[in-house]
Known about the structure:
Blueprint: E1 9-11, E2 14-18, E3 24-29, E4 39-43, H1 44-79
Antiparallel strand pairs: 1-2, 2-3, 3-4
Amino acid sequence: MPDPRALRIDVGPFHLLPTPDAETWTATARSASDAEPPEITAQWTAWVAFAQRVLQADALWRDVEARGDAWDEGFAAARDAGATNPYR
């Protein structure tokens, strides 16, 4: 069975490849053009920290979207005289 630490990780529009140094991985963007995509090499802990920040940004965005949806529903209910606004 191959060592899973030696396998490429595909993440959306880029992938992570292990380097000969066991502690670093290289991110390479997938590119449809013939140009050589840029590569970023960092330690695994930096990639984990990056993933954590992406998850935090996603949670923040979902919270903002939920508040916007609530405002839209309240605004729509306020425009209809027969409707009750559940947010007031």
